[in-house]
Amino acid sequence: MGLFSFIKNAGAKVFGIGKTTEEEALEVAVIAKEKALKLTNAVETLGFEVTDLNIEVTGDSATIWGQADSQATKEKVVLVVGNTEGIATVDDRMTVEIPEPEAQFHTVVKGDYLSKIAKKYYGDAMKYPIIFEANQPMLTDPDKIYPGQVLRIPAID
């Protein structure tokens, strides 16, 4: 005798254990809907004013629809969704009631802190409260940022 190769998942269908392709697809769809619902709840819990908010999750991607009351709200919603474990990309399809200039975004790296980021973008480390306030309520403490987190950096006059 020798070594034989088989289709690994074929046995699951014969013995009634495991899942069929259709069952797996349904499970993936249910998980995606659950993730979307949790993301929607997270956005609503933070009190952002978005009319007709709709979030769809596919794999590690999220798509957001709705009308935000301001550009800042729109950007914060994107950050809430994007800074969630398991989400790698966000397709922002939201609209804004009153158009405003878009903020810049900064991805935190090891060794970053808000005053260092403020120095980079504003030329003044003491303007870190602007960044902190621009990222509330997601940030609760100016000293609690982490590598990989994306922050809003609003324009200042």
From TrEMBL:
It is found in: Cytoplasm. It comes from the Bacteria. NCBIfam families: PRK11198.1 (NF008399). Its main location: cytoplasm. Residues 104-153 form the LysM domain. The lineage of its organism: Bacteria, Pseudomonadati, Bacteroidota, Flavobacteriia, Flavobacteriales. Keywords: Cytoplasm. This is Potassium binding protein Kbp. It comes from Lutibacter oceani.
